[in-house]
Design a protein that fits this description.
The structure is a single chain. With 114 residues, this protein is mainly beta. Helix content is 0%, strand content 54%. A 7-stranded antiparallel beta sheet has the order 1-2-3-4-5-6-7, with no helix packed on it. The chain is globular.
């Protein structure tokens, strides 16, 4: 998978995001056929990536100007990580997934699509 798009939304008293588009390296497959095969829960391995909720439990912290306390799901590897989200000075959405400490992390950058 080269790139993907997520749509954030508010529900259940926190911010969430779900996958609305992604590009596969294998152009012979439709994105609508990709399943959550690496999910540790066997009951969820048949759900589609497209439309899947991948970010949840984010709460806004006005003092830090970021959403924190979230969980991000990495469908490619079937893992969940702690997460924080913020918008940088260029207006890009930054999503950091981390393990235990914020410096053991990976950050994804999303550009708003008009």
């Amino acid at each position: 998978m080269k790139c993907h798009r997520q749509t954030p939304y508010y529900g259940y008293n926190n911010y969430l995001a779900k996958i609305i588009w992604f590009q596969l390296d294998d152009h012979s497959r439709s994105i609508n056929t990709v399943l959550d095969e690496k999910n540790p829960d066997p009951n969820l391995r048949t759900r589609k990536w497209l439309g899947m909720e991948v970010l949840r439990k984010l709460k806004y912290n006005a003092d830090e100007n970021e959403w924190e306390g979230g969980i991000i799901y990495d469908a490619k590897h079937g893992k969940e990580w702690n997460s924080i989200v913020w918008i940088n000075s260029q207006g890009l959405l930054k999503v950091k997934g981390y393990w235990l400490f914020r410096w053991i992390s990976q950050t994804l950058t999303f550009k708003k699509v008009e």
